[in-house]
Amino acid sequence: MRATVKWVDGVMFVGETGSGHAVVMDGAADHGGRNIGARPMEMILIGLGGCSSFDVVQILQKGRNIIVNCVTEITAERVDEVPSVFSKIHLHFVVTGHELKVAAVERAVKLSAEKYCSASIMLGKAGVEITHDFEVIEV
């Protein structure tokens, strides 16, 4: 896996993945940015949420569950010193589907957290307290 990050100006950078996708990262005005892109630490949260959500959806689909939506709300806390690393991250999965069993969603979230989500496991090994919960919405 490869990626490149190119400085544009100020504190704006363009990251490009090895698969050819690009994303703009920028800082707030008080840090010299123009606020036209996500902050790098926000990208970490988005990556974590994407990794976990991917797992949960895949596990539920493989179990023949009928899901129509999965939204993961992520909240995080950072320490007050430099480096300002994450100390706590919470992922709240909102899974919508037809006749979804709570136990199936619980199992999918647990498998992602403990076995499959590389981002979650990596951050946890670095000392970040990562918690998960979920809700099921029937349609």
In words, what does this structure look like?
With 139 residues, the protein is of the alpha+beta class. The protein has 2 domains: 1-38, N-terminal domain of TfIIb; 40-138, K homology (KH) domain (GMP Synthetase, Chain A, domain 3), CATH 3.30.300. 33% of the residues lie in helices and 38% in strands. The protein has helices at residues 40-62, 102-116, 118-125, and strands at residues 3-9, 12-17, 22-25, 66-78, 86-98, 129-138. β1 and β2 form a beta hairpin. α1 packs across α2. The longest helix has 23 residues, at 40-62. It is elongated, with a radius of gyration of 17 Å. The termini are far apart.
Brief summary of the model shown:
The protein has 139 residues and is of the alpha+beta class.
Give the key terms.
139 residues, alpha+beta, N-terminal domain of TfIIb, GMP Synthetase, Chain A, domain 3, 2 domains, 3-stranded antiparallel sheet, 3-stranded mixed sheet, elongated
